[in-house]
């Protein structure tokens, strides 16, 4: 009986400590302060839970600027957690967002310049009607490429793609050591997916195709893409199709991600890059 009572007391204290960890002081525009846990944000309102369990729905407009900022950050974190849960990950777990790019604000045609936090390096890029479009330009004699710089050991990429009239789409990674040599690449065409190990850069580039899978993709359909590069393992899903490969080179730190299109008309939406850790 004594052990049962001690165990029950331990659980009770644990619950209280957990609850206290989530409590914070909230101040309204009149300067009044309460201690509560934020448990929901919907529209212009937030739901707060007091230590005694009572819940109150309040207007965000009545809170201090700092509290409104906290609520916005909390809501963004909850949305990220929900997104992670829907990814169908097997190798890694996201730890920090590197960049989230919805590509939903129209831009003019861009060459060799910043575009929504990415760098248009080769080809012509624009955002139009809620999608990023990258077109190959004949004079470049190279597929179009839009890059984002970062530094991470393990990487998760999520995106939505539509092939359109383009010949192929690729997601490329390069390492962190200048001049940032090629590391790995996923190719997507209407009838094939494949993963390549790559070395070198520019004219010194060499590629080794590790695995190929035949598919049947509709060029006018939007497909969800998830790529996990965790240690020496590379796994990708495009719609319901899955492909994976291993290579020691994949474990090297990643310094650049590139969106690469051959031809014209390929589109992207909701591209996110995440730092990640291996699933234990």
Descriptors:
eight-stranded antiparallel β-sheet; SH3 type barrels; 280 residues; alpha+beta; 15% helix; 20 strands; Jelly Rolls
Write up this protein:
- With 280 residues, the protein is α+β, with helices and mostly antiparallel strands.
- The protein has 2 domains: 18-85, SH3 type barrels (Roll), CATH 2.30.30; 92-278, Jelly Rolls (Sandwich), CATH 2.60.120.
- It contains 2 helices and 20 strands.
- Strands 5, 8, 9, 11, 16, 17, 18 and 20 form an 8-stranded antiparallel β-sheet that branches.
- Strand 8 and strand 9 (131-135) form a beta hairpin.
- The chain starts with a helix and ends with a strand.
What is this entry, summarized?
By secondary structure, the protein is of the alpha+beta class.
Write the layout of secondary structure elements.
Elements: H1 2-22, E1 24-27, E2 33-42, E3 45-50, E4 55-59, H2 65-85, E5 92-101, E6 113-115, E7 118-122, E8 124-128, E9 131-135, E10 144-152, E11 155-162, E12 168-175, E13 182-188, E14 192-199, E15 206-214, E16 223-230, E17 233-238, E18 241-246, E19 254-262, E20 266-278
Antiparallel strand pairs: 1-2, 2-3, 3-4, 5-20, 6-7, 7-10, 8-9, 9-20, 10-19, 11-16, 11-20, 12-13, 12-19, 13-14, 14-15, 16-17, 17-18
């Amino acid at each position: 009986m004594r052990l049962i009572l001690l165990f029950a007391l331990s659980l009770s204290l644990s619950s209280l400590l957990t609850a206290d960890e989530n409590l914070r002081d909230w101040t309204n525009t009149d300067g009044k302060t309460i201690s509560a846990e934020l448990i929901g944000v919907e529209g212009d309102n937030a739901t707060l839970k007091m230590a005694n369990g009572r819940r109150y729905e309040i207007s965000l407009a009545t809170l201090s600027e700092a509290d409104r900022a906290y609520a916005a950050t909390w809501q963004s974190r909850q949305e990220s957690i929900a997104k992670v849960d829907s990814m169908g990950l097997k190798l890694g777990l996201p730890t920090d967002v590197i960049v989230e790019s919805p590509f939903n604000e129209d831009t003019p045609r861009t060459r060799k310049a910043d575009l929504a936090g990415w760098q248009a390096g080769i080809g012509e890029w624009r955002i139009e009607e809620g999608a990023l479009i990258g077109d190959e330009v004949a004079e470049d004699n190279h597929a179009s490429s839009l890059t984002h710089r970062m530094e991470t050991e393990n990487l998760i990429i999520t995106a939505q793609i539509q092939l359109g009239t383009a010949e192929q789409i690729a997601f490329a990674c390069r390492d962190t050591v200048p001049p940032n040599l090629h590391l790995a690449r996923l190719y997507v065409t209407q009838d094939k997916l494949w993963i390549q190990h790559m070395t070198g850069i520019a004219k010194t580039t060499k590629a080794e195709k590790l695995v190929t899978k035949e598919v049947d993709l509709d060029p006018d359909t939007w497909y969800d893409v998830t790529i996990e590069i965790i240690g020496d393992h590379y796994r990708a899903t495009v719609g319901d199709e899955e492909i994976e490969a291993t290579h020691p080179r994949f474990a090297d730190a990643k310094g650049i991600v590139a969106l690469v299109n051959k031809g014209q008309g390929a589109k992207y939406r909701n591209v996110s890059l995440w730092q990640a850790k291996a699933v234990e």
